[in-house]
Amino acid sequence: LSAAVANGDIVFIASVTLDGNETGLILHKVLVTNVQGAPVTVAPVGDQGTGAASRPAAPEGSLLVTLAVDARSAQRIAFTAEFGTVYLAREPADAPAGATVTESIGSIFG
Hints:
By secondary structure, the chain is an alpha+beta fold. It is built from 2 helices and 7 strands. It is 16% helix and 41% strand. The protein is globular, with a radius of gyration of 16 Å.
């Protein structure tokens, strides 16, 4: 969803259910307080023989991201991590923090 997340970033947290049938943004404007593990390797990008630039590849191994959230938010994240998938993406400071709609396969592909 976004580039690497680092200490001090503000992120939103998206969830996808285990069966993959529903997705939604469960939290907005969450502060990342620490990122540990999974060093990022550098993978070449571009055409061969053109002095290709480099960009970070996906992290390898385990990654631990610590977030500043209240108890209720921590429960929502833990539940999603146990029974689905959690995604983090950086969120701009001026992004609206209002409620979002949970999407399903039916609502997206109708």
